[in-house]
Amino acid sequence: MSAPAWIKIYVTDWCPFCKALIRYLHNRGIYNYSLCDIEEDYRCAEELLALTGTPGVPVTYVCNYRISGFDQLELDRVFGPGRF
């Protein structure tokens, strides 16, 4: 299964919702994404603050569409069957 053209996820290493989101993607065969750890790379933190105004994670961008948090209903809608 291929992934959408562009998936970027802002995370931290200790965040349980970030880990749940990554498990969710892997369970759907989606491995083609970019992780941006806001604690490991200050540019990621600055980017996330500029985009959302808050350092809360996870935040997922699929192309220019934002999903804040681990919202399984929204993820199912975006990554559901026939969506990509």
From TrEMBL:
One Pfam family it belongs to: Glutaredoxin
Annotated CDD domains: NrdH (cd02976)
All residue ranges annotated as the Glutaredoxin domain in the record: 7-62
Tree of life domain: Bacteria
Gene3D superfamilies: Glutaredoxin
Signal peptide: none
InterPro entries named in the record: Glutaredoxin (IPR002109), Thioredoxin-like_sf (IPR036249)
Protein's name in the database: Glutaredoxin domain-containing protein
Native source organism of the sequence: Candidatus Kaiserbacteria bacterium RIFCSPLOWO2_01_FULL_53_17
